[in-house]
Amino acid sequence: PGLLLIMIAIIFLKNQTRPIVNLAKAAERFGKGEFIKEFRPSGAKEIRQAAYEFDKMRKRITIQLHQRSEMLSGISHDLRTPLTRLKLQLSFLKQQDLAKKMGDDIEEMERMLNEYLEFARFQKNEETETANLNDVIVKIVEKYQDKEININLEENLTINMRLNSFKRCLMNLIDNGLSYGKKVEIFTKKTLSNIIIFVDDDGPGIPEKEHQNVMKPFYRIDKSRGQNKAGVGLGLSIANDIIRSHGGNISLEKSPLNGLRVKVSLPL
Sorted alphabetically, which PANTHER family does this protein's record hold (predicted)? Predict the structure, then answer.
Protein backbone atom coordinates (compact mmCIF):
# COMPACT_ATOMS: atom_id res chain seq x y z
CA PRO A 1 0.00 0.00 0.00
CA GLY A 2 2.82 2.41 0.83
CA LEU A 3 4.48 1.89 -2.57
CA LEU A 4 1.15 2.42 -4.32
CA LEU A 5 0.61 5.68 -2.45
CA ILE A 6 4.10 6.88 -3.44
CA MET A 7 3.42 6.08 -7.11
CA ILE A 8 0.10 7.91 -6.98
CA ALA A 9 1.78 10.90 -5.32
CA ILE A 10 4.52 11.00 -8.01
CA ILE A 11 1.94 10.91 -10.80
CA PHE A 12 -0.08 13.64 -9.06
CA LEU A 13 3.00 15.84 -8.60
CA LYS A 14 4.00 15.40 -12.25
CA ASN A 15 0.55 16.45 -13.38
CA GLN A 16 0.76 19.51 -11.13
CA THR A 17 4.28 20.56 -12.07
CA ARG A 18 3.98 19.99 -15.86
CA PRO A 19 1.86 23.15 -16.43
CA ILE A 20 4.38 25.18 -14.37
CA VAL A 21 7.27 23.82 -16.46
CA ASN A 22 5.38 24.59 -19.68
CA LEU A 23 4.71 28.15 -18.49
CA ALA A 24 8.36 28.62 -17.53
CA LYS A 25 9.53 27.35 -20.95
CA ALA A 26 7.09 29.62 -22.78
CA ALA A 27 8.26 32.63 -20.73
CA GLU A 28 11.91 31.75 -21.44
CA ARG A 29 11.25 31.44 -25.20
CA PHE A 30 9.35 34.71 -25.27
CA GLY A 31 12.15 36.41 -23.33
CA LYS A 32 14.60 35.25 -26.03
CA GLY A 33 12.43 36.86 -28.69
CA GLU A 34 11.10 33.62 -30.13
CA PHE A 35 7.70 33.70 -31.81
CA ILE A 36 5.07 31.73 -29.83
CA LYS A 37 2.13 30.85 -32.05
CA GLU A 38 -0.19 29.54 -29.36
CA PHE A 39 -0.04 28.91 -25.63
CA ARG A 40 -2.72 26.86 -23.84
CA PRO A 41 -2.97 27.35 -20.06
CA SER A 42 -3.54 24.18 -18.04
CA GLY A 43 -3.24 22.81 -14.51
CA ALA A 44 -4.72 24.01 -11.24
CA LYS A 45 -6.83 27.17 -11.05
CA GLU A 46 -3.99 29.36 -9.77
CA ILE A 47 -1.56 28.06 -12.42
CA ARG A 48 -4.12 28.61 -15.19
CA GLN A 49 -4.70 32.15 -13.95
CA ALA A 50 -0.97 32.92 -14.05
CA ALA A 51 -0.75 31.36 -17.53
CA TYR A 52 -3.73 33.40 -18.79
CA GLU A 53 -2.12 36.61 -17.52
CA PHE A 54 1.19 35.69 -19.16
CA ASP A 55 -0.56 35.00 -22.47
CA LYS A 56 -2.44 38.31 -22.31
CA MET A 57 0.82 40.14 -21.57
CA ARG A 58 2.60 38.32 -24.43
CA LYS A 59 -0.12 39.28 -26.91
CA ARG A 60 -0.13 42.93 -25.79
CA ILE A 61 3.66 43.21 -26.09
CA THR A 62 3.63 41.52 -29.51
CA ILE A 63 0.91 43.87 -30.79
CA GLN A 64 2.74 46.94 -29.46
CA LEU A 65 6.02 45.86 -31.09
CA HIS A 66 4.30 45.29 -34.44
CA GLN A 67 2.49 48.62 -34.21
CA ARG A 68 5.74 50.42 -33.39
CA SER A 69 7.55 48.84 -36.33
CA GLU A 70 4.68 49.50 -38.74
CA MET A 71 4.29 53.11 -37.61
CA LEU A 72 8.00 53.95 -37.85
CA SER A 73 8.29 52.08 -41.13
CA GLY A 74 5.35 54.06 -42.52
CA ILE A 75 6.81 57.37 -41.35
CA SER A 76 10.20 56.50 -42.84
CA HIS A 77 8.60 55.51 -46.13
CA ASP A 78 6.46 58.68 -46.32
CA LEU A 79 9.49 60.90 -45.72
CA ARG A 80 11.12 59.65 -48.92
CA THR A 81 8.70 61.65 -51.12
CA PRO A 82 9.54 65.14 -49.76
CA LEU A 83 13.25 64.24 -49.76
CA THR A 84 13.03 63.34 -53.43
CA ARG A 85 11.32 66.67 -54.16
CA LEU A 86 14.05 68.53 -52.26
CA LYS A 87 16.73 66.81 -54.32
CA LEU A 88 15.01 67.87 -57.54
CA GLN A 89 14.72 71.46 -56.35
CA LEU A 90 18.39 71.54 -55.38
CA SER A 91 19.37 70.72 -58.95
CA PHE A 92 17.94 74.11 -59.99
CA LEU A 93 19.76 76.04 -57.26
CA LYS A 94 22.38 78.43 -58.66
CA GLN A 95 24.55 78.46 -55.53
CA GLN A 96 26.39 75.20 -56.12
CA ASP A 97 28.30 75.24 -52.80
CA LEU A 98 25.06 75.58 -50.86
CA ALA A 99 23.37 72.98 -53.05
CA LYS A 100 26.16 70.47 -52.35
CA LYS A 101 25.97 70.96 -48.58
CA MET A 102 22.20 70.59 -48.59
CA GLY A 103 22.47 67.59 -50.92
CA ASP A 104 24.89 65.88 -48.52
CA ASP A 105 22.43 66.41 -45.65
CA ILE A 106 19.57 64.97 -47.70
CA GLU A 107 21.66 61.92 -48.63
CA GLU A 108 22.45 61.36 -44.95
CA MET A 109 18.74 61.49 -44.12
CA GLU A 110 18.04 58.98 -46.90
CA ARG A 111 20.68 56.63 -45.47
CA MET A 112 18.97 56.86 -42.08
CA LEU A 113 15.59 56.02 -43.60
CA ASN A 114 16.93 53.17 -45.71
CA GLU A 115 18.78 51.65 -42.77
CA TYR A 116 15.74 51.75 -40.54
CA LEU A 117 13.39 50.44 -43.27
CA GLU A 118 15.70 47.48 -43.85
CA PHE A 119 15.84 46.80 -40.11
CA ALA A 120 12.02 47.00 -39.78
CA ARG A 121 11.60 44.65 -42.76
CA PHE A 122 13.79 41.99 -41.15
CA GLN A 123 12.19 42.32 -37.71
CA LYS A 124 8.58 42.09 -38.83
CA ASN A 125 7.04 38.62 -38.34
CA GLU A 126 10.37 36.81 -38.71
CA GLU A 127 10.22 33.40 -37.09
CA THR A 128 13.00 31.77 -35.11
CA GLU A 129 14.95 28.89 -36.64
CA THR A 130 17.83 26.67 -35.58
CA ALA A 131 21.05 27.52 -37.39
CA ASN A 132 24.74 26.67 -37.26
CA LEU A 133 26.42 29.87 -36.07
CA ASN A 134 29.74 29.04 -37.74
CA ASP A 135 28.09 28.60 -41.15
CA VAL A 136 26.27 31.93 -40.75
CA ILE A 137 29.48 33.79 -39.85
CA VAL A 138 31.53 32.17 -42.64
CA LYS A 139 28.91 33.04 -45.29
CA ILE A 140 28.79 36.66 -44.12
CA VAL A 141 32.59 37.01 -44.09
CA GLU A 142 32.75 35.63 -47.65
CA LYS A 143 30.96 38.78 -48.81
CA TYR A 144 33.97 40.86 -47.66
CA GLN A 145 36.53 39.22 -49.98
CA ASP A 146 38.70 42.32 -50.39
CA LYS A 147 38.80 43.09 -46.65
CA GLU A 148 41.12 41.80 -43.93
CA ILE A 149 38.82 39.73 -41.70
CA ASN A 150 40.19 36.87 -39.62
CA ILE A 151 37.93 34.31 -37.95
CA ASN A 152 38.52 31.71 -35.24
CA LEU A 153 35.35 29.74 -34.52
CA GLU A 154 34.65 27.08 -31.91
CA GLU A 155 33.08 23.94 -33.34
CA ASN A 156 29.43 22.85 -33.18
CA LEU A 157 27.76 26.12 -32.26
CA THR A 158 24.04 25.67 -32.96
CA ILE A 159 21.56 28.26 -31.74
CA ASN A 160 17.98 29.43 -32.24
CA MET A 161 17.88 32.79 -34.02
CA ARG A 162 15.92 35.02 -36.37
CA LEU A 163 18.38 34.44 -39.19
CA ASN A 164 17.96 37.59 -41.28
CA SER A 165 17.98 39.84 -38.23
CA PHE A 166 21.11 38.17 -36.87
CA LYS A 167 22.87 38.52 -40.22
CA ARG A 168 21.96 42.20 -40.21
CA CYS A 169 23.42 42.56 -36.70
CA LEU A 170 26.73 40.87 -37.55
CA MET A 171 27.11 42.82 -40.80
CA ASN A 172 26.53 46.06 -38.88
CA LEU A 173 29.32 45.14 -36.45
CA ILE A 174 31.72 44.19 -39.27
CA ASP A 175 30.88 47.34 -41.27
CA ASN A 176 31.39 49.43 -38.14
CA GLY A 177 34.83 47.91 -37.58
CA LEU A 178 35.92 48.33 -41.20
CA SER A 179 34.64 51.92 -41.27
CA TYR A 180 37.11 52.95 -38.58
CA GLY A 181 39.88 50.39 -38.98
CA LYS A 182 41.57 48.22 -41.59
CA LYS A 183 41.38 44.88 -39.83
CA VAL A 184 38.58 42.92 -38.13
CA GLU A 185 38.86 39.71 -36.14
CA ILE A 186 35.90 37.51 -35.16
CA PHE A 187 36.07 34.60 -32.77
CA THR A 188 33.55 32.63 -30.74
CA LYS A 189 33.47 30.57 -27.58
CA LYS A 190 30.87 28.53 -25.74
CA THR A 191 30.18 28.62 -22.01
CA LEU A 192 27.73 26.57 -19.95
CA SER A 193 24.80 28.86 -20.71
CA ASN A 194 25.92 31.23 -23.48
CA ILE A 195 27.58 31.56 -26.84
CA ILE A 196 29.90 34.56 -26.99
CA ILE A 197 30.96 36.31 -30.18
CA PHE A 198 33.86 38.80 -30.17
CA VAL A 199 34.26 41.32 -32.99
CA ASP A 200 37.55 43.25 -32.75
CA ASP A 201 38.86 46.08 -34.91
CA ASP A 202 42.12 48.05 -35.03
CA GLY A 203 40.49 51.49 -35.28
CA PRO A 204 40.73 54.37 -32.80
CA GLY A 205 38.32 52.73 -30.35
CA ILE A 206 35.61 54.36 -28.25
CA PRO A 207 36.21 56.03 -24.86
CA GLU A 208 34.72 54.02 -21.99
CA LYS A 209 32.48 56.93 -20.97
CA GLU A 210 30.82 56.77 -24.40
CA HIS A 211 30.08 53.01 -24.39
CA GLN A 212 26.47 53.43 -23.31
CA ASN A 213 25.86 56.49 -25.47
CA VAL A 214 26.87 54.85 -28.76
CA MET A 215 24.07 52.31 -28.25
CA LYS A 216 21.53 55.13 -28.56
CA PRO A 217 19.96 55.72 -32.01
CA PHE A 218 21.65 58.42 -34.13
CA TYR A 219 24.33 59.13 -31.49
CA ARG A 220 27.72 59.95 -32.98
CA ILE A 221 31.01 60.78 -31.30
CA ASP A 222 32.57 64.10 -32.23
CA LYS A 223 36.15 62.85 -32.32
CA SER A 224 37.97 60.29 -34.46
CA ARG A 225 35.19 57.70 -34.73
CA GLY A 226 32.65 60.44 -35.44
CA GLN A 227 34.49 61.81 -38.45
CA ASN A 228 33.26 59.00 -40.69
CA LYS A 229 30.39 60.50 -42.71
CA ALA A 230 29.25 57.15 -44.08
CA GLY A 231 27.54 56.20 -40.82
CA VAL A 232 24.34 57.66 -39.46
CA GLY A 233 24.58 56.46 -35.86
CA LEU A 234 22.25 53.46 -36.19
CA GLY A 235 24.65 50.53 -36.67
CA LEU A 236 25.39 49.69 -33.03
CA SER A 237 21.89 50.70 -31.93
CA ILE A 238 20.23 48.27 -34.36
CA ALA A 239 22.72 45.51 -33.49
CA ASN A 240 22.00 46.03 -29.79
CA ASP A 241 18.24 45.94 -30.40
CA ILE A 242 18.50 42.68 -32.37
CA ILE A 243 20.66 40.93 -29.77
CA ARG A 244 18.46 42.06 -26.88
CA SER A 245 15.40 40.77 -28.74
CA HIS A 246 17.18 37.38 -28.80
CA GLY A 247 17.53 37.49 -25.02
CA GLY A 248 21.22 38.38 -25.21
CA ASN A 249 23.31 41.47 -24.61
CA ILE A 250 26.11 43.51 -26.18
CA SER A 251 28.99 45.12 -24.32
CA LEU A 252 31.96 47.19 -25.52
CA GLU A 253 35.57 46.80 -24.45
CA LYS A 254 39.07 47.73 -25.58
CA SER A 255 40.23 45.38 -28.33
CA PRO A 256 43.57 43.51 -28.22
CA LEU A 257 44.08 45.21 -31.61
CA ASN A 258 43.92 48.56 -29.72
CA GLY A 259 40.56 49.39 -31.27
CA LEU A 260 37.03 48.46 -30.25
CA ARG A 261 35.87 45.05 -29.09
CA VAL A 262 32.16 44.25 -29.35
CA LYS A 263 31.19 41.32 -27.13
CA VAL A 264 27.92 39.62 -28.06
CA SER A 265 26.45 37.15 -25.58
CA LEU A 266 23.56 34.89 -26.67
CA PRO A 267 21.75 32.38 -24.43
CA LEU A 268 21.78 28.71 -25.41
Answer: SENSOR HISTIDINE KINASE ENVZ, SENSOR PROTEIN CREC
